[in-house]
Structures are given as structure tokens and as C-alpha cells.
Write a structure and sequence with these properties.
The complex is a heterodimer of chains A (314) and B (281).
Chain A lengths: L1 E3 H15 L3 E5 L3 H4 L2 H6 L4 E3 L4 H12 L4 E7 H7 L1 H9 L6 E5 L17 H6 L5 E3 L4 H13 L4 E4 L4 E3 L14 E4 L4 E5 L3 H13 L5 E5 L2 E3 L3 H8 L4 E9 L4 H9 L6 E7 L10 H7 L4 H17 L1
Parallel strand pairs in A: 2-3, 2-4, 4-5, 5-7, 6-7, 10-11, 10-13, 13-14
Antiparallel strand pairs in A: 1-8, 6-12, 9-11
Helix pairs in contact in A: 1-8, 4-6, 9-13
Chain B lengths: L3 H23 L7 H5 L2 H11 L14 E4 L5 H11 L5 H4 L30 H14 L6 E6 L6 H12 L5 E7 L2 E2 L2 E2 L9 H7 L3 E6 L3 H13 L5 E6 L22 H18 L1
Parallel strand pairs in B: 1-2, 2-3, 3-7, 6-7
Antiparallel strand pairs in B: 4-5
The chains are: A alpha/beta (314), B alpha/beta (281).
Keywords (chain B): Thiamine pyrophosphate
Protein name (chain B): Transketolase
Cofactor (chain B): thiamine diphosphate
């Protein structure tokens, strides 16, 4: 069963707005796509169309936060992080204001629009900013939980929303816990840390590797920052191989975060599945692009396989 | 008409602000934005010591008027005014920009009482002020938001995004003041990236425009009174000023955009201020 993350995001904003009158939503002419339009329909007096002017949107949100509001700002991930990076850094983050940034149609999920609209480095940008929380939901349920959490997390937060319908991998009633990596499948030979669309790919890879006699643990690391180092180390215990899989550049994303967490650890071979320092490109569908960039269950399987064999020889 | 004694008091406040800038905040060898701080001394004095509703003992007062220094590099003028108003002890002024100081190189709301936002990345203050004005309106609070912008800063595209946005949302609780000293860091604005004509641009963007002499306290107060009466749109006050005003060697001198004084220059600055002090008393 699959569900759309953007739809879940929009519905979650409405729910949150119903419970909390401080919630305000700002949009840069993409409301029909980010689904912030659902909030506009429900609470028009707390919804602000800011035009195609993302920088002003971000700084305006800072001003609203300074009067006690809890703003959510919306655009495609490539714009909501990159176009207004300085605004997010200077005013929102230095002062640690509770401004929540939605990066919609993230990663390669806006397959047709090509490199200008596909975000391969948004997580790296946001992760580098002090005080920023970085969230990558795995499915619609987690999206909903995260939106609620963002309003109460002190300081700024970034949520990365895939454009596609993704498999439901978590339960609706399950509570999202910030910074708590979640084991999706137990295993004892290797561990795959993944987030977003790559979690389902990792589960597929784990299924397949079982037939080769390799037991793979799959962990959903939907909180990229703050990353719980102790929890990550704990999850590796007993495994000699760890692979990180993400729909993002290999530079600065989850792979980097986990390498930083594991620096100095012996007896663990670390591998990566991600985008190898490349921009996106247009394609006729999302799956085609994921294959083109090697973001597949097959790629995770191959990596784990090779590394487990190497470790066995070593 | 503004009473003469009010004007005299505010001129004295502006002088005290300049004294703090020269004696406490810059001094010999210490680098600081003397020019753009002195050009806006009267504007800042008029706001903090007459126009704005605020309480140094309660900086978070809900219905206070807000002041944002979008040209955050001129922080010295705001620090001097805040210390004079009693937001923090004047001893803090001498520690400006030192490690661990309350007073950072640019305004930092997380460290300094009375600072409303982190500003200084040019072009962003007007947007922040617009967001505040919007937030105050949602809550039905009748406070005003004042934001001081540099004329060099008008080259930033975000200023015009914010100008459109404030007019679209009819933010009549927002007043922008342009410190039009005609100089940017490297020299005359008109010879570099000319932001002229200034007033017609703001008018075309839907703002009420008032042009004044930015060193004339009476004119500043009248403009701010006039802004209170404008409904349904934001107001911009274009304040013609002199960069480095009152410090003879720094007036119209781009070298003092962000410069330090030699011992000789400090003596001249002190003499300039002493002369003004004698004229004021």
C-alpha cells in the first residue's frame, strides 16, 4: 500500500493548524504542488501567498516567528533551501527561531523537470547550519508525525518531502521520536542505514540477500540531524558491514553524517549508495531516474554482498 | 509642530550617541562603522527617545514598537542608543566586538537586550519587519515596526520583494526609513551601482513616500507623525543624510565606512564633539 507524502504533509498542516492557532503557512506559488493549499482552504487568514519570492518568504517567516507565530514555509526543496540559504542562515538559524522549512518534490522525485528542480544537496545545506533539525520521512505516516513534532522542536527544522506515492512502512498510531533511528528489519551480518525512498529499497535488498545467506538489518534514519551517535553505534554491534543508502549526493547527507558518527571505529566496513557528485536530469518517470543513478535495491544488495564477502576473506 | 524643547533634548541625545560612538565604541586603532552610524544618529535618537513605545526594563513588552537595523553594520548607533536608554550598562560599550561580548559586530538578539532580530546580511531587514507587522496585525496589536535601511542596501533584490509584499498586504503599521547618505563601502553609490531614482521606485511599489533632511529632528518627527496617518499602505521616509555627520574628517568620506582613527583623528573627533557640546549647552 502506498500513500502520497505531499498529501500527508498538507493534511498534517491542517490538523496542526486546527489545534494550534499560532501556526501560519507561507507559500511561494507552489501551493497546489506542496499541498499547502489544503491549509489555505481551511485557514485562509493564517495563510500567506508570498509570490515567487522565496527569500522574502523566509525572512518574513522570521518576523512572524518573532511575534510568536510558528511559520511553515513551502517550496520545492531546491528553492526552499538553496534559493534562500542566506536568509535561513542569518536570521532564522543564528537566532534559532522556530521556522519550519518544507522542501517539497525533493531529491529526483520531480523527474520531468530535470537538474534545476531536483535537489541532490539540500540535506547537506541544511545539515551544515547550526541549530537546524533535518528530517527525511520514510512514508506518509511519518510525514504526518514529523509535521506535528516540528512545531514543538525548538529552533528551525527542515523536512524533505518526496513528490511520489511511497509504500507505507510505519503504523499510523506510531509516535515519531526525534533522533531515534528505527529498526525496520532485524539482521545480524550487515546493517543498512537508509531514509526516504531508499528504506523500501533496502528492505527489498534485505529480502533478496536472505536467499544468499546474508542477514541484513535495515534501519530508518529519518532524523538526519541531530543524529544519535550512540544509537547508531549500538545498532552496528555484531555486524562487520554497514551501508548507508540515500537519495542524495554522497557529499554531506546521511552517509556523511554516519561516517562522522563512526569515525575512529574499528571492525566496521562502511559503504555508500547515493548520488556520486552529479546533478539530476530529466526522465519520463521516477523509477527510471533512480535506476540511472544507481539508487536501487539491486545496488544496495551488490554493495552489501561485496563488502560481506571482502570481510569474510579479510 | 514639534516643541523646541523636545527638539533640543533629542539633538542632545544624538550628540550623546555620537560621543559613545567615538569615545567608547571605536577609539584609536579599533575598526568600526563610523560613517553609517553617525549618518543615522538623529533618526535613531528620535525613535528611541521620543517616537517609540518601549520599556528598557521590559524589552519583551507585547505592545512595544519595534526597531530593526537592516543596515546592521551600523550597530554602533543602535548600541549607543540602547545603552543610553538603559537596556544594558554603558560599560558594555567598550567591550564591543570582543570575544564573549554582549555587543557583537552586527545586531544579535540572542545576546543583546533590545535587539529585535539578527540583522546585517543586507537586504533582509525589511522582510523581517514585514513579517513582524503581519504578526502584530494578526494579534490585533497596534504597535508599529520601524526599519532603517541603507541606500547602498537598496541594490539587494530582496528589498524589492519585501517592498512588493508589504504593499500587497497593506502593512500600514510598517515604516521604512532609508538612510540616504549616498556612499557605500567603496565610494559614491551613483558611480558604482546606482540605486537612483529612489523615491519614484518606492512610490511605484505602492508605498507612501516622505522625503526629509535626516539630521533635522523636527522633520524626522513630523514625517513619523505623518506616517501614523497613512492607512492601507506602508510608508517610507527617505532621509537625506551625511555619512560621518559631525566628525569633520569623516563627513562624506568613504574611508570611514568601516575605518579606524589615528590618535590625531581621535583628537579632532573629540574637538568636533566638544564644540557641539558647548553649542548644545
Amino acid at each position: 500500500m502506498t500513500k502520497n507524502l505531499r498529501q500527508a504533509y498538507g493534511e498534517a498542516l491542517v490538523e496542526l493548524g486546527r489545534d494550534n492557532p499560532s501556526i501560519v503557512v507561507l507559500e511561494a506559488d507552489l501551493g497546489k504542488s506542496t499541498m499547502s493549499i489544503l491549509f489555505q482552504n481551511a485557514y485562509p487568514e493564517r495563510y500567506f501567498e508570498m509570490g515567487i519570492a522565496e527569500q522574502n518568504m523566509a525572512s518574513t517567516a522570521a518576523g512572524l516567528a518573532l511575534t510568536g507565530k510558528i511559520p511553515f514555509i513551502n517550496s520545492f526543496a531546491v528553492f526552499s533551501t538553496g534559493r534562500c540559504y542566506d536568509q535561513i542562515r542569518q536570521t532564522i538559524s543564528i537566532a534559532s527561531l522556530n521556522v519550519n522549512i518544507c522542501g517539497s518534490s525533493a531529491g529526483l522525485s520531480d523527474f520531468g523537470d530535470g537538474s534545476t528542480h531536483q535537489s541532490v544537496e539540500d540535506v547537506a545545506l541544511m545539515r551544515a547550519i547550526p541549530h537546524m533539525t533535518v528530517l527525511v520521512p520514510v512514508d506518509a505516516n511519518e510525514t504526518r508525525q514529523m509535521v506535528r513534532a516540528m512545531a514543538s522542536i525548538p529552533g528551525p527544522s527542515y523536512i524533505r518531502i518526496n513528490r511520489a506515492d511511497l509504500p507505507l512502512l510505519t503504523d499510523e498510531g506510531e509516535e515519531f521520536r526525534l533522533g531515534a533511528p528505527r529498526v525496520m528489519r532485524q539482521g545480524s551480518d550487515a546493517v543498512v542505514f537508509a531514509n526516504g525512498v531508499m528504506v523500501s529499497k533496502a528492505l527489498e535488498a534485505a529480502d533478496s540477500l536472505k536467499y544468499d545467506g546474508i542477514s541484513v538489518k535495515v534501519v530508518n534514519v529519518s532524523t538526519v540531524k541531530p543524529l544519535n551517535r550512540e544509537a547508531i553505534i549500538q545498532l552496528i554491534q555484531g555486524c562487520t558491514v554497514a551501508v548507508v543508502a540515500e537519495e542524495h549526493s554522497l557529499i554531506g547527507g546521511l552517509g556523511s553524517a554516519i561516517s562522522e558518527a563512526l569515525a575512529g571505529m574499528r571492525n566496521v566496513a562502511l559503504g555508500f549508495v547515493g548520488i556520486d557528485d552529479l546533478f539530476g536530469t530529466s526522465a519520463s518517470n521516477y523509477e527510471e531516474l533512480l535506476v540511472y543513478y544507481g539508487l536501487t535495491a539491486e545496488a544496495i544488495k551488490d554493495r552489501v554482498h561485496k563488502m560481506v564477502n571482502q570481510e569474510a576473506k579479510a | 509642530m514639534v516643541a523646541q524643547n523636545v527638539i533640543d533634548q533629542l539633538n542632545e541625545r544624538a550628540l550623546r550617541i555620537r560621543e559613545h560612538i567615538v569615545y567608547d565604541l571605536i577609539g584609536v586603532g579599533k575598526v568600526g562603522h563610523l560613517g553609517g552610524s553617525c549618518s543615522s544618529a538623529e533618526i535613531v535618537a528620535a525613535l528611541y527617545f521620543h517616537k517609540m513605545k518601549h520599556d528598557p526594563a521590559n524589552p519583551g513588552m507585547r505592545d512595544r514598537d519595534r526597531f530593526l537595523l537592516s543596515k546592521g553594520h551600523a550597530a554602533l548607533v543602535q548600541y549607543a542608543a540602547l545603552a543610553e536608554a538603559g537596556y544594558f550598562p554603558k560599560e558594555e560599550l567598550k567591550k564591543v566586538k570582543s570575544l564573549g561580548a554582549m555587543l557583537q559586530g552586527h545586531p544579535d538578539m540572542t545576546r543583546t537586550p533590545g535587539i529585535e532580530a539578527n540583522t546585517g546580511s543586507l537586504g533582509q531587514g525589511l522582510s523581517i519587519a514585514g513579517g513582524m507587522a503581519l504578526g502584530l496585525r494578526i494579534d490585533g496589536i497596534a504597535s508599529k515596526v520601524y526599519v532603517l535601511i541603507g541606500d547602498g542596501e537598496l541594490a539587494e533584490g530582496q528589498i524589492w520583494e519585501a517592498a512588493m509584499s508589504a504593499a500587497y498586504y497593506k502593512l500600514d503599521n510598517l515604516v521604512a526609513i532609508v538612510d540616504r547618505n549616498n556612499l557605500q563601502a567603496t565610494g559614491p553609490i551613483c558611480e558604482r551601482f546606482d540605486t537612483n531614482p529612489v523615491s519614484p521606485k518606492w512610490a511605484a511599489f505602492g508605498w507612501e513616500v516622505i522625503e526629509i533632511d535626516g539630521h533635522d529632528i523636527g522633520a524626522i518627527l513630523s514625517a513619523l507623525e505623518q506616517a501614523d496617518k497613512i492607512k492601507g499602505k506602508p510608508t517610507v521616509v527617505i532621509a537625506q543624510t551625511v555619512k560621518g555627520k559631525c566628525i569633520s574628517f569623516a563627513e562624506h568620506n568613504p574611508a570611514f565606512h568601516n575605518g579606524s582613527m589615528t590618535p590625531e583623528q581621535l583628537e579632532i573627533a573629540k574637538a568636533d564633539l566638544l564644540r557641539l557640546r558647548r553649542e548644545t549647552v
